[in-house]
Amino acid sequence: MDLKTASALRRLRLVSAPEAVSFLLLLVCSVLKRTTDFNAVPVMGMVHGVLFVLYVLFWADAWNRTKWSLKTAALYFVLSVLPTGGFFAERKLRREAEDAVIASRARSEGVVNA
To answer: Could you give the C-alpha distances from 48 to 33, 39, 55, 92, 111, in angstroms and in order?
Structure first.
């Protein structure tokens, strides 16, 4: 995996958890708006919107660089629209990055899969 691909995956991973948190906070704010006088929906909506747009941009960049299958790309997109999906995406991307580092080290040390 080259440096640009690794950077694209890292950006996507780093934005996925905050995007999930902002989605959950937006849901909480929506409930509070309807049950109390507290109204933070405009602020949380903007924060979540910015993070979601960043997620989609980073997702598109990662898909372009990694050449994911349509199934994998769709999975990461669907995870972005589920309330806790960003946490699962972050975890899966972290594992994918760790596997790439291990494979890269194995190649540099001359280890060949049997």
So the answer is: 16, 15, 10, 21, 44
Distance between CA atoms of 54 and 58, rounded to whole angstroms? 6
Whole-angstrom distance, CA of residue 77 vs CA of residue 85: 9
User: For 33, how many CA atoms within 13 A lie in the half-sphere containing its CB?
Assistant: 13
DSSP label at 87? H
DSSP state of 68: -
Report the distance separating Cα 77 and Cα 86, nearest Å.
10
The tokens of 108 are what?
Answer: 């540099």
For 86, counting Cβ atoms within 10 Å of its Cβ (0-12 exposed, 13-18 middle, 19+ buried), the class is buried
Query: pLDDT tens, 94-113?
Result: 998 888 778 778 888 877 66
Could you tell me the pTM of the whole model? 0.84
Centre a 10 Å sphere on the Cβ of residue 110 and count the other Cβ atoms it contains: 6
